[in-house]
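In this section we walk through a basic example: taking a raw amino acid sequence and producing a predicted 3D structure, encoded as discrete structure tokens. The instruction is simple. Fold the sequence below.
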Amino acid sequence: MNEEIRNPGNGPSLEGRYSNYVEVGFNAFEFLVEFGQFYSESDPPRAHTKIVMSPHYAKNLSETLQKSLSQYESDYGAVVSAEGAAVPMSGTANPGPGLTARMAAAPAALANPVAAPVMAAGGTQSFNDAVKALLDLLKTYLPAAGGGLPAPSVFLASVAERSLGLNNRRGEDARAGFGVVELKGGRLDALARFELWAAQPGAVEQAIQDLISRLLADRDKLWSVGFLRISLEGTSSSENVAALTAWRQTADVRVLYEFHFEDSDNSQGLIARIPININSTYNELTTITDEMTRWDSQAAPILEVRGPVTIGVLSALVFVGGAAPGGSVTLTRTFDGASGPPTQFATLAAFLAAISGTNAQRNAQLVFASWTNFMAIFTPSGTPITLGTDSYSPLEAALSPAISLGGVEDAFEISYQRTALEVNAVAYLRAR
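The resulting token sequence is shown next.
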């Protein structure tokens, strides 16, 4: 490299620093490259230089290195790649005696770490998914197989499930305004056993040593994807397997791994109506309702919301097991003592405009000719959830302008044309 270009102004020469360790990270706007030194007896690696550059210049750097390597090989001969080294390691150089190189130390799976992964709902399935996710992450640290040797592997020598808080509960989440999703999780206390192979005892020992160093150096990254704790339990002695003309060695690593999942608890919390019969002189009967209704093949009661309240969103949780219901759906804005039929409107926009503002109509109505037309005003709001054995779609419809009910005499109603849904379908409706 030309000294005048590298050091303009003829100032003091830049300090040269040796590096056998490089780690690369990136986000949407820039690349971060850290250089340092990493020796087998040091933990963790020690970075000494950090370079930040745009993706454009990172690509230029990559192309420049490729051209320089091609020129080097043309002048001095081929550089042995990681695949050709005695201890093949993904993304590593071939170190000299006693050195361990670690280029791009973070596995691809950890390049953009996130919180503990969300598993499918259900205890057994969540446990099985968590075991698979744990092993898939650890497999990213395995070196590549080569030289006709058995493939390196990792498996769980032991595993126990640990609780995460009370009843494994982390909190709750709402879908389309319905508080039906419980956030849960669990932890796996596991002993992971790595098994590596090489043609010589020193090579397999070096491979085990490098794997352990990379695992322990990446504890912060592993924590971000669910590994709350990771520690070395021990290593076996290298063992000659004569039948394969190979040497084998294992390393046991203890991990505490946290996983998350969602549970609908069989629709707990979706109670639309509670009838109460009071055994008294007057044999009173009352019904407690939320601002929600449930329509199914048994009944489709009117959803009525009384003022004073402002309604800006209609929410729905809908399951349809076959053909869509066929009846019409009616929206009504009315008040106690209203005389005469409500004024009819053809569209939701016209209906909302008419019942808003200073000259708002207090007795108005919009009829959707079919269930399908009514559902068309909704858009998806989050992923489907399972209630019981059925999958429900969370939906929302924004009301703009919002419906304002000024007093207790004002009411907003949603009604179905028939007394019940005539097909295998269930809909929870809420105005909020």
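Looking at the output, two observations stand out. Residues 1-9, 81-109, 111-115, 272-276 have pLDDT under 50 and may be disordered. DSSP finds seven helices and 24 strands in the chain. In the next section we compare this with other chains.
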